[in-house]
Design brief:
Strand content: under 5%
Number of strands: 0
Distance between the termini: 29 Å
Structural class: mainly alpha
Radius of gyration: 18 Å
Shape: globular
Number of helices: 9
Order of helices and strands: HHHHHHHHH
Helix content: 55-70%
């Protein structure tokens, strides 16, 4: 289903109702619920579980920053090959061309067949423990859900009500409407700050440099 967000929700409640109708949020809600139940069934929660969650959530701003530039903006062509990288970034390229379409705004459903198994296998290799892997999956899905929600909200007519949200709103709007080679962060500008892609907007030329450029 495609919606034009220029005529979209203006309140958080209306935005939430529209959000849960989308494919990616529904997949994430189902996966998160399953992961929470599976982890709760294993009961024991230790310091290692706590540290696992902290590491994943604390590193998320850098993860999303790198994912945005090197996969969604086709910088992955040197690592993955031009054809595969182009397929990954096509949806995002369309999103830049029309930032108000919901059908190109979210992570594609098919991508979860790669993202989720890949994350699970990586955690198992590192931790060698199903319990810690499930803890990591819960944290990772939380971060993904937060990313999808905030990205969606920024593209609605809902206006910033807090300084915290305003900073993220401005960061992503600059990425779309000032220069898409900067301001990659969604949930946090920290990754941009660390990697030098959060300049003073007054010193950046207004130019659309979408995926593949």
């Amino acid at each position: 289903m495609t919606d034009d967000l220029r005529q979209g929700p203006r309140t958080l409640a209306a935005a939430a109702r529209m959000f849960v109708r989308q494919g990616s949020p529904r997949i994430l809600l189902a996966a998160l619920g399953t992961a929470i139940v599976a982890r709760a069934a294993m009961r024991r929660f230790t310091v290692a579980d706590f540290l696992m969650m902290i590491v994943i959530l604390a590193s998320w701003p850098l993860q999303e920053r790198l994912f945005h530039e090197y996969l969604l903006h086709l910088r992955a062509r040197r690592m993955l090959g031009a054809t595969l990288a182009r397929r990954i970034s096509t949806n995002h390229q369309m999103h830049h061309r029309n930032p108000w379409r919901t059908d190109t705004m979210f992570i594609r459903s098919v991508a979860y067949f790669v993202i989720l198994p890949g994350f699970v296998v990586t955690c198992l290799v590192i931790t060698r423990a199903i319990r810690l892997t499930l803890t990591g999956v819960v944290a990772f899905l939380d971060a993904l859900m937060w990313y999808e929600w905030l990205h969606f909200l920024i593209h609605t007519p809902y206006m910033p009500q807090s300084n915290w949200y305003r900073k993220r709103w401005q960061n992503h709007r600059l990425h779309h409407f000032r220069n898409s080679r900067y301001w990659y962060g969604i949930t946090s500008p920290l990754g941009d700050t660390v990697l030098g892609t959060r300049p003073d907007p007054a010193h950046v030329p207004q130019k659309w440099n979408g995926p593949g450029t």
